[in-house]
Each structure stands twice: as C-alpha cells, then as structure tokens.
Request: fold
Amino acid sequence: MNIDSINNGIVIDHIKAGQGMKIYNFLNLGNLKCSVALISHANSHLMGKKDIIKIDSDLEVDLNALGYIDPEITINIIKDGVRVSKYHPEPPEKLTNIVFCKNPRCITSTEQELPHVFELVDRVKDEYRCIYCESKPKEID
Amino acid sequence: MRSIINILDLTKEEIDQLIQVAEDIIAHPQNYLEKCKHKKLATLFYEPSTRTRLSFEAAMYELGGHVIGFSEANSSSAAKGESVADTAKTISCYADIIAMRHPKEGAPMVAAANATIPVINGGDGGHNHPTQTLADLLTIHREKGTFEGLTVGLCGDLKFGRTVHSLITAMARYDNVRFVLISPEELKVPSYVKMPLKQKGISYIQTTDIESVIADLDILYMTRVQKERFFNEDDYIRLKDSYILTPQKLAKAKDTLSIMHPLPRVNEIALAIDDDPRAAYFKQVLNGKYMRMALIMMLLEVK
Reply:
C-alpha cells in the first residue's frame, strides 16, 4: 500500500499498532481541511507492527499533549520535502482540557465552565492528578 | 494576599509560628481582643457544619472582628446557579477574608483563584480540611510536646475522611513519624495520600484490626464513617459500625496515648471514654478556635 510522501506537514510515527485512531480523534484531525492519512498495522523493523499518521499541511497542531498518550511515538516535521525536526514528545507538565476528571465529587463535575487541568506529579510513572481534587484522569477512549 | 487551601500551603516554620501565637492567645487572650477590629470574615458554608463554622465565627469575634455569611447553599445564590468563582468575586467586595466549606473537592481553590481577599478552606468534599489539621497539630503539640518520633494511628473512614488526609500530609513532614492505618478494606487511605509516604520512605502499615496495634500507638485518631460521602446507602450501613472504641479495646493501650477525633462522633467512641484522661477530642475543639484565630491574623497580616 502506498501513501505519497508529503512536502510540508507532520508525520507521527511509531504509534503502537491499533492506537492510531485514538490519536486521530484526540488531535481532532477529522476537522482539518487538509489531507490526513492514517495507516494501520504498517510493518516496522522496530515494533513489528505500528500505526502512522501523515498530516499534509504545515498548520499548527499542538502535539505536546501526545507525550501524555505515548511518549515513545516519533514526531517528524517536514518542510519542503525535507525532515527538519524529529523528536519524542515529552510528557507535558500540565494538561488543560485534554483529559477529564471523572470524580463525581470534583468541582468540575458541577461547574461546566471550569477547565479540566491535570498536573504531572510523578515523572517516573507519568502520573497526572487533577489540580482540584487530585484524582487521576479519565482514560482517553 | 494568600490563601490556605491545603495544609502544605503552610511551611513547617509557619505552623510553628501559628502554634506560638495560639499558645500566646491561650495565655494572654486580653491582648487579642481588638486585633481584627473593623475586619469582616465571610463564612461561606455550602454544607452543614457545627464546629468549623462556629469556630471560625467565635475566632473572629474574639479578635474583635465581624462575621457575615451563610450556612447552607440554599440560602445563597448558589441555589440560583451562581458559580463559585462569581460568588468569590462578589464576597471580595464585602469582606476582608473568606472561610469556605463546600461539598465539591477543589471549590475553595477555585474561590481563591477568583477572590481578591484571602480564602481559607474549611473543608472540601472528602479532600482537604487544613484548619482541622491545625487544630490537630496544636493538640498533638500540647499533649506530646513534639511531633517527632510519634506513632500515629488513624482509624475508621480513611478513604473519605478529609481530616485524615490533611493530618497524614502534615505529620509526614516531621522526622521519624510512623503511621498505622486502621480501616476496613473499602475505606483505605487513597493512593494519592500514600504516594508521598512511599516517595519519602516514611514507615506505615495498613491493618483492619485495631486491637492488634493499639499498644504501639502514641496517638489514636478516630474518625466517623460519613454518610454524606456515600452514594450507596447499603455500603454506608454495612460499614458504619466498623470500628467502635470501647474501654475494653483500650485495655492494652499506653497510659500516655492521646485519643483524638475531629468530631462529630456518632458512636465510634463509647461515651465511657470521655472521662478517660487520654481523651483529647474536646480539647481539639478548643484548640481549633485558637489556631483559626492565629491563622486569620496571619492572613490579614495583623501583628
């Protein structure tokens, strides 16, 4: 199966096989006007099987939060057909309205306007806690 | 301008200072009668409370200040759907300092982020209750003369008991403190409270059997299984009588044990224990008022 390489855009590589749609939804890529390719279960020397997402546009997409989902994925930034940057996203110190608090006793459960904010409290375990009630976040579907 | 939402908002040194001020208030109450003259405390209590609200109010009156506020959500604009943030901004126009209790965890933090006056957390859901912890710390200090090297037993509802969470967090900052966590399986201390203990290598054990550990304790902190924290009444009924302290259970305890309880109690401490010299829970109530006086003065920067 061939997908054309891109000239200006972002390639999200080394996504765990089967997890690509989760990242596609998480980044709201369905709302973009440009071409987006999601390749599932591609062969990988490193991983056996992997997913890949190619975004054919140099628009600004906030990729830092991907460090929360999977810090092992690789982000490639392509400019004029050349890869200008390649990195693994670091788990961010703070997640705002990216994951949500599931604690029914949390103030966010009744005050809908409040942002759901989680802070990284344990860098070894990549553990986040709600700044209001200290609960763990609801897993991303 | 600063607020106190979590006991960790206060350093150990600041807690020492508050204890010193509280001791001075106890020794020389006449010196404090006008410290907060012309100042107003707003007590915003969205949830029923006897001790905490009246303690804050008594504290402010004894400092010569005034008190405004409400004691249930239904008598405030919350009943009309006003947000905590808007209420905090509004009350900032009327008062000099806020004491807030709210059933939702994090509500006082939201208030503090929006108020232009200091906010004191008077209890948020099953989360934090820092001024109860200040009362507890003054009580422990007065009973034991130190915080270090103590074996502290906490018994009952350790899952939803916010006073337990704040006290563990506060006591974990002192050297050689050991914790004995006594609760039914369903009401164990949440992982986020235990995590700092693990990270700091602080000694703690968890058990369901109070009688097997009572002889080791310097402090026994009893708690009530709180009906208002349960969504399922069956669970409450099944667990509510899990631990009841009786003179028989105290038979193996040290003569120097201090028995504490944030109150209100239902039946978890037998009335016969009230006359035991080791009972310290009504002293806690009084100590709470003195520590709230010291805290109000600190936040209002009154010398």
Observations:
- The radius of gyration of chain B is 19 Å.
- The domain at 7-128+288-299 of chain B is CATH 3.40.50.1370 (Rossmann fold).
- Chain B has two domains: 7-128+288-299, 130-284.
- Residues 156 and 223 of chain B are 5 Å apart (CA to CA).
